[in-house]
Design goal:
The structure is a single chain. The chain contains 17 helices and seven strands. It has 370 residues and is mainly alpha-helical. Among the domains are: 129 residues, no CATH class; 113 residues, no CATH class. A three-stranded antiparallel β-sheet has the order 3-4-5, with no helix packed on it. Helix 2 packs antiparallel against helix 17, helix 4 crosses helix 7 and helix 5 crosses helix 7. Bound molecules: iron/sulfur cluster (2 copies). The site of one iron/sulfur cluster has 16 residues, from helix 14 and helix 15. GO terms for molecular function: 4 iron, 4 sulfur cluster binding; metal ion binding.
């Protein structure tokens, strides 16, 4: 390859590059809608009633379970355990079919972390304001959210009206105060200090991903055929989709990825003329955006929570360079390798069957116990 270096240019600051941003994606709207739904359900359900009884309450003191109109004794917990298992199997089914949508949209860790970032954007007026009072305001707001989360959590085990009414006069019993304080503190510290580290190091769902997914399950991928070889270049050269170079063959693309990911064993990377470069400008925006600290260009990683932050960052780079979006995209390995659709997939079938079985057991048990 020829080696034309253009030291005056960098991937993030092309002098003549257009400055437009990638259009707002439908998934941003979906993420906020799901966030509102999850928060609304969690904070709202303890207040809802059905035929003059709580909609959902595991009343520890009265030893009664109110479950969507059914009044159960606490010893009827077995059908509820079947129901929980049905939910777990359904989550596995959705994961095997569509990837980690739960992590990207609905997991409480994701929702609360996203909510905390929204609080920070609010108190800093989206990065435009700051000052000494900003951290105080931010921490006060987050402490209030955490306290309300603790109260709401205990509200699933003791009528929430009594909890809220007893707070001002300090009339709550010891276990209620303990668990409110525990969950408030856990919410506060978890989001402030751990955030996505929970996904990487603590969450069991994250650890079992290889058993839930197959080559046909969509996840976040870097399109190495289009992106490699990566490198900074002069503005205005156009995407590989617009110039003669086109897409690489998969073996060459993988070779470039390996060389970039393992410089110690592969040796120094060659430099390429602008005409040979792929669409990755090597700006590292995707790496900086990743809350886990992954470089998605190195290949799929089981720690990836499919949050799409790298996709958004890369789409912005593509837009600034006048390239089409989608260098980092949601697709499956089978689609990348252009395999024909599968007629039989063991995991979805297994998880579908388990979901149905647990649901039948739960419904039968709930009807018998009511
Ligand atoms: S930023 Fe990209 S690589 Fe990182 S967790 Fe999110 S989707 Fe995965
Ligand atoms: S994949 Fe996209 S965001 Fe990441 S370095 Fe390449 S151009 Fe930049």
């Amino acid at each position: 390859m020829s080696s034309i270096q253009r030291p005056g240019y960098s991937a993030t600051a092309h002098p003549a590059a257009p400055t437009r941003r990638a259009p707002v994606q439908r998934r941003h709207v979906a993420q906020w809608l799901v966030l509102a739904l999850m928060l609304g359900l969690f904070y709202g359900v303890p207040w809802l009633r059905w035929h003059d009884a709580p909609l959902l309450l595991f009343d520890i003191e009265a030893r009664r379970i109110h479950f969507f109109g059914l009044g159960l004794r606490t010893d009827a917990i077995v059908p509820l355990l079947w129901l929980a298992l049905a939910g777990l199997a359904a989550l596995c089914l959705v994961t095997s079919l569509y990837g980690r949508l739960w992590c990207a949209y609905a997991c409480p860790q994701t929702v609360l972390t996203r909510l905390h970032r929204a609080v920070r954007r609010l108190t800093t007026l989206n990065g435009r304001a700051g000052g000494r009072t900003e951290p105080v305001l931010r921490h006060a707001l987050w402490a209030a959210v955490s306290l309300w989360t603790g109260i709401t959590f205990v509200g699933y085990f003791s009528p929430i009206g009594g909890l809220v009414g007893g707070l001002p006069a300090f009339e709550l019993g010891g276990w209620k105060v303990f668990w409110i304080a525990f969950y408030a503190l856990a919410t506060w510290a978890n989001v402030l200090f751990l955030h996505e580290q929970v996904c990487t190091y603590l969450c069991p769902y994250g650890r079992v991903q290889p058993w839930l997914t197959d080559a046909f399950t969509p996840s976040i991928h870097y399109d190495a055929r289009r992106g490699e070889p990566r490198g900074a270049r002069a503005a205005g050269g156009g995407s590989v989709m617009q110039r003669a170079r086109g897409l690489l063959d998969p073996v060459t693309a993988r070779d470039y990825v390996f060389r970039a990911a393992h410089p110690a064993s592969a040796g120094p990377r060659p430099t390429f003329s602008d005409a040979h470069l792929g669409d990755c400008t090597d700006c590292d925006a995707c790496v900086r955006a990743c809350p886990i600290g992954l470089d998605i260009r190195n290949g799929r990683n089981d720690s990836c929570i499919e949050c799409n932050a790298c996709t958004d960052a890369c789409d912005d780079t593509m837009a600034r360079n006048g390239f089409p979006a989608g260098l980092i995209l949601r697709t499956s390995i089978a689609r990348i390798e252009q395999r024909p659709p599968a007629t039989f997939r063991a995991r979805p079938l297994l998880f579908g069957a388990l979901t149905a079985l647990f649901l039948v057991l739960a419904i039968t048990g709930l009807l018998a116990a009511s």
